[in-house]
Specification:
By secondary structure, the protein is an alpha+beta fold. The protein contains six helices and six strands; from the N terminus they run αββααβαβββαα. The chain has helices spanning 2-10, 36-51, 56-63, 86-92, 126-156, 171-174, and strands at residues 16-17, 20-29, 74-79, 104-105, 109-119, 122-123. A four-stranded antiparallel β-sheet has the order 3-2-5-4, with helices on both faces. A two-stranded antiparallel ribbon has the order 1-6. The longest helix has 31 residues, at 126-156. The radius of gyration is 29 Å and the shape is elongated. It starts with a helix and ends with a helix.
């Protein structure tokens, strides 16, 4: 147990799990052929429809211009630091689960998001990490014993190949 605890303390960063969110998104992209006011009005309409009770997924499928509109705006699990939009990321990691965000503007467009589930950054407790540490230490020991055995064998049994020769054969010896 002391060895496991020492390993845990020495490698504590290995037991950090980054925070993540699962979320949905409604998006209206900024485009040269549409004014920002029109884009804002369109995303505001989508947000109002969701707030009035229309399913988020249905609004996303029918109106959103985001990359996941066809799947109801559902986004994959996202870790902090993985989004291009820092503004959107800040909203996602501060918004309570289940609530609809205000309209968020970034350089790509206007967004409304909903956090479905969130897990904050956490450290795996020692009680959960013990099994993983025990397996890792056992694997390291197996590798060490194997390497020691191979070193012993290489000293006891000489092995050579034609590639061990340091000189190239001369043309006359090839004849």
């Amino acid at each position: 147990p002391e060895e496991l605890a020492a390993y845990y303390r020495a490698h504590i960063q290995e037991f950090e799990e980054p925070g993540w969110v699962e979320w949905r998104q409604l998006t209206v992209r900024k485009r040269p052929d549409r004014s920002d006011a029109d884009a804002y009005a369109r995303v505001a309409e989508m947000r109002e429809r969701v707030l009035r009770g229309e399913p988020f997924e249905a609004v996303a499928r029918s109106m959103s211009e985001g990359p996941t509109a066809a799947s109801g705006g559902l986004r994959e699990r996202t870790c902090r630091g993985s989004l291009r939009s820092k503004t959107l990321e800040d909203v996602l990691f501060s918004l309570p689960e289940g609530t609809i965000s205000p309209i968020v503007e970034d350089d790509q467009g206007y967004h409304v998001v909903q956090v479905i589930r969130r897990q904050d950054t956490r450290r795996v407790p020692f009680s959960e990490a013990q099994v993983q540490i025990r397996e890792k230490l056992a694997q390291e020991r197996r590798q060490q014993v194997t390497q020691e055995w191979l070193n012993k064998l290489s000293k006891e049994i000489p092995v050579w190949t034609i590639y061990d020769q340091s000189e190239q054969p001369s043309q006359s010896s090839l004849r």
